[in-house]
Amino acid sequence: MRQARVLIAGGGVAGLAAARALRLRGIDDFALLELEDHVGGNSRAGAVNGLACPLGAHYLPVPDDAAPEVQDLLTELGLGHRVTGRWRLSAQGEQHLCHSPQERLYFRGQWQEGLLPVNDVGPQTLAQYQGFAQAVTQAQAQAAFAVPVSKRPFRQYQQSLDAITFDVWLNQSGWTDPYLRWYLDYCCRDDYGAGLDAVSAWAGIHYFASRHGFHAPGAATMERDGGVLTWPEGNGWITQKLAAPMGPRLQTGRIVTRIDVLKAGVEVDAIDADTGQAERWVAERCIVALPLFIAARVVRPAPPALQAAAQAARYAPWLVTNVHLREPLDDRPGAPLSWDNVIHAGQGAGQLGYVNAMHQSLSPVPGATVLTHYRAFGIHPAQRQWLYEQTWAHWRDGLLADLHAPHPDLAGKATRIDIMRYGHAMAVPVPGFASHAALAALQASPKGQRLQFAHSDLSGYSVFEEAFTHGHRAGMAV
Q1: CATH number of the domain enclosing 304
Q2: Tens digit of pLDDT for each residue in 92-108?
Q3: 3-class DSSP state for residue 423?
Q4: Spatial separation of the C-alpha atoms in residues 17 and 41, rounded to whole Å
Q5: How far lies 113's CA from each of 29, 104, 345, 370, in Å?
Q6: What are phi and psi of 473, to 5 degrees?
Q7: Domain total for the chain?
C-alpha cells in the first residue's frame, strides 16, 4: 500500500494544473497517476525524425483578464509580467507569438490569406459576412462571453442559445450563404470536434463572441485577442514545463481502476502498465482530473451529478497525422506557406488542414519540416469505431488524397507518416450540455471535500484555459 496526502488521477492539463496549485500552496506530499507514458493528454508533444511536433493542441490564445490563472502560469514561465497592474506578454513571451503569415485557405485552385473564403465570392456572400459580424457584436452586448466559461454565469439569453443547435439558429436567423456556413462549420469542428449541426448555438456564437471576434472582409476592426502563442511541439511545450518540477511524484503508466471515498480518506486502485501489478493508494484527498465518462466508471459510488453529466456528454474522435518532409513542398499561387493551412471542402468535411512545425524557425533557408494534419469525426459512435478499424495505409492514402490538389508532390517528399488516434478526443458542446446543472454541481464541491473534480469536460468543451482553470481551482480546494 502506498500513501500520499493528495492523489491526482489524470495527467492532462487539468491534472498538471492541480499539481502546480498544490506546489504553490506548499503541499509536496502528493502523487499524480497518469495512464500514458507521457503527461499532457490532448496537449502532448511528439517528434518525427528528430523534429518536434504536436500530437494534439497546437496553440494557446494570449489570455485576457478573464483567465488570470493562465496569465499567472505564463508569468511563472517567463512569458508575461504585470505592469501597473495590467498583465502583458514579456519580451520572451512575444518571441513565442505566432509568426506571420499566420493562416491561409486553399480555395478555388489557389491560396488566399485568411480562412474566410473571399476570392470572387460575390456581393451576397459579403453581405452575409457583414451581417453575421453584426450578430456577434449584438450577442456580446446581450451577455458576457468569456474564456474560461466558469467565470461568467449563464444568462437566460445564453441558456436559450444552448437549447438548440447552431444550424437551427443560423437557419432561423437567415444565415444561409454556403461559404459563410462552410467557415462556421470549420470553426466548430476545429474547436469542438463536431459541425454546426451538432454543437449548440451557444457554442457557435461563443467561439467568436468570447475572444475570436468575427471580422468581415474590409472591416476596420482589430482582433479582440492579442494573438496566439505556439511552439514546434504545440501545447506540449507548456505541459512539459508543468511536469518538470514534479519528479517522482509523477507516476506514469498507472491505470486507475477504482476511486473510493472512505470515512478516513480516499482509496485508489491502479495497475502498473509495465508490470501488470495492482497498486493500492491511500490519501486524505483526491482530485479526479479525468474525462467524465471515465470518472463515472472509476469513482465508487459515482455521485448523482457525475452520473448525470457523464450520461449527457458526447465525445468527438480525432485523427492527428504527422508527416515528415525532407524538403519544402512546391506551392500553388497565392498566399505563402503559413502556420495554419486549410483546404476548402464541402460542409461537413472532416479534415481541418495542417500546421507547419517549423513555422517559428528563424532559419533563412527552408528545409525539412513536419506537417501536422487534423481530422475531426463528429459525435456519431459509428465514426469512432470506423476510426479504429481502418489501417495505417488507409489513413496515409486519405491524407495524400486530402492534400493532393494543393500539394501533388507531397507523396514524393514524405519520409515518414505517424498517426495518433483519439477515440474520445474532446467533449462536444451539444445542446443543453454547457448549461447542464450537473456540471455546475461538480464544480461547486466545498473546499476540503474528499473528492474534487477537474477537467475541461466541466466547461462543456475542450480548450487549454478551461482545463487549466478547473485544475487550479481543484488544487486550491483540497
Answers
A1: 3.50.50.60
A2: 999 999 999 999 999 99
A3: strand
A4: 12
A5: 51, 5, 17, 21
A6: -60, -45
A7: 2
Domain extent, residue 26, equals 2-41+66-79+237-313+430-477
pLDDT number for residue 339: 97
Classify burial at 411, counting beta carbons within 10 Å of its beta carbon; exposed 0-12, middle 13-18, buried 19 or more.
Answer: middle
Which residue's C-alpha cell is 438548440?
Answer: 164
Tallying the residues shown for the chain, one arrives at: 478
- 92 assigned to some structural domain: no
Residue type, 414: A
CATH number of domain containing 207: 1.10.405
pTM of the shown model = 0.96
Positions in the chain short of pLDDT 50: 221-225
> 105 φ, ψ to 5°?
-130, 130
Which residues, other chains included, contact 429 with Cβ-Cβ below 8 Å and sequence gap of 6+? 162, 192, 199, 200, 202, 203, 460, 461
Helix (H, G, I), strand (E, B) or coil at 317: strand
Q: How far, in Å, CA of 322 to CA of 451, rounded?
A: 38
Read off φ and ψ for residue 397, nearest 5 degrees.
-65, -35
Q: Where are the beta strands (DSSP E) in 273-413?
A: 278-288, 299-300, 315-325, 340-343, 351-356, 369-376
The three three-digit cell numbers of residue 184, written as one number: 462556421
Per residue in 358-389, pLDDT tens?
999 988 778 999 999 999 999 999 999 999 99
Which residue is it, cell 437557419?
171
Q: Quickly count: other Cβ atoms within 10 Å of residue 247's Cβ.
A: 8
Q: In the 8-state DSSP scheme, what is residue 225? A: S
Which residues, 6 or more positions from 346, have their beta carbon under 8 angstroms from its beta carbon?
A: 182
Residue 223 pLDDT: 42
The whole-angstrom distance between residue 448's C-alpha and the CA centroid of its chain comes to 29
Helices (DSSP H) in 270-327: which residue ranges? 292-298, 304-312
Helix (H) or strand (E) holding 145: none
CB 451 within 8 A of CB 299: yes
Please name which of 186, 221, 228, 179 lies closest in space to residue 204, comparing C-alpha atoms: 186
